[in-house]
Amino acid sequence: MIVAAALSMLLVQMDWFALNLMLPVIARDFHTPTTDLQWLVSGYMLALGAFMITGGRAADLFGRRRVLVAGLAGFAAVSAVCAAAQNTAWLTTGRVLQGCAAALVLPVCVAVVTAHFRDARQGRALATVFAFSAIGTALGPFVGGAFAEHVSWRAVFLLNVPLCAVAAVLLLRCVPRTRHEEAGGGLDVPGVLTLAGGLTTIMIGVDQAAHWGWASAATLACLTGGAGLLAVFVRLERRAAEPLLDLSLLRSRPFVALTLAGSLSNIVYCLVAVLSALYLQQARGLSPFDSGLIFLALSGGAGAASYWSGRLAQRVRPDALMAAGMLLCGVSLFALTWTTRLVPYTAVFAVVGAGVGLGWALTSVATQSCVPANRLAAASGLVFTSLVLLGAVAVAVAATVLEAISGSAGAAASDGAAIEAILRVGALLSVLGAAALAVVVRRTGRGCADGGGIRA
């Protein structure tokens, strides 16, 4: 069971992080500035974030194994479509659809494991799943760089097809039906439409603000319209007999604090992953393969921290560990922006990865322990939605700011000083987030995992 769920996490994570080092190569093939391809990252993350709550709720309703296998089948099919892309519009569309399929995979992998292990073994089981996720995270940049330089960026997408097939077979053979009988009987379609519409509209406004202008009518219409749809979503959820989102989760201070802290860690991780890929290749002139080797340090640090997070959380409060991880990330990221020689850069890169890895991995470990059994996948979807969506917004905003500082889209990707300036802002956010979480830890007393949150 654990291996089947973990392999599903591995392949989605590997594909996600492989793309960062392929962007310059894809840009050359399609004769477009690299910064114009950021929608390949943010569009995927937007679709993933917009539909993970839906995917989680569907899994609770219709069966976690069934939804997970459907997600893997869709992910494989769309990967083949991406491999055949002939232009950026084709590839971008494929990436958005890929994000929709991944939304049926990520939250359900966690829920499948936590539904089976509702005792002291849960932390260790989740740690194993996140270890596989960490392997995918570590392999992603290396695989992306190696394939882009020596094979083809298209081959990375084709690699997903057999991996999805193996994962689906293992799930069908090893994972029992895990639909919870108290989950209810219907999917909240109005909630699905208003949530996805609101998140998508806001993301379009953020992404296009650089071209339309932040104060333009189109940008303001998207931002206010999206916020309005989200307000309608909340109103519908309060009245729905079978709501898509259990709003009582948002009344748990530990749950909300841990989710926001993990989201901030993921924001920093996304900024580091995307901007460092541009910096190493286009500002430092390294090849995709060499950049992938250096990225193994970042991913390896994050992977090791993710693996040990579940075990450490049994001895130390998860929220305190997260605060320490965010502080470590902020300080090391500051140091990274002043490091020029590649050997010390690689060493500091690993420390940055360890800091952010503690942040986002412990979010899932801690929050799942205080969620009712009939809402495991839906709650996991909410956590992952916050992590991914805010990361997508951060990438879009960073691309806009980078182009503004550099003066043009063509020069932005190779402007090392501008990239370092944005990363220093990310470092400051991480340090401030650590301080804020430390205050919350002190005020809330015992954490969510220790009984401070919602129980079934």
Briefly summarize what is shown.
The protein is built from 17 helices and no strands. The chain has helices at 2-18, 23-30, 38-62, 64-83, 88-102, 106-116, 122-150, 153-174, 189-212, 217-239, 253-283, 288-312, 318-337, 342-368, 376-406, 409-412, 416-444.
Could you walk me through the main structural features you see in this protein, from its secondary elements to its overall organization?
By secondary structure, the chain is mostly helical. It has helices at 2-18, 23-30, 38-62, 64-83, 88-102, 106-116, 122-150, 153-174, 189-212, 217-239, 253-283, 288-312, 318-337, 342-368, 376-406, 409-412, 416-444. Helix 6 (106-116) runs antiparallel to helix 15 (376-406) and helix 11 (253-283) runs parallel beside helix 15 (376-406). The longest helix is centred in the middle third of the chain and has 31 residues, at 253-283. The two termini are 24 Å apart. Residues 449-456 have low confidence and may be disordered.
N→C terminal distance? 24 Å
| Unreliable stretches covering 5 or more consecutive residues | 449-456
Number of helices: 17
What's the main sheet like? none
Average of pLDDT: 80
Q: What is the H/E order? A: HHHHHHHHHHHHHHHHH
- The helix content, as a percent range, equals over 70%
Radius of gyration: 20 Å
What global shape is seen?
globular
How much strand content do the residues show?
under 5%
Structural class: mainly alpha
- The total count of strands amounts to 0
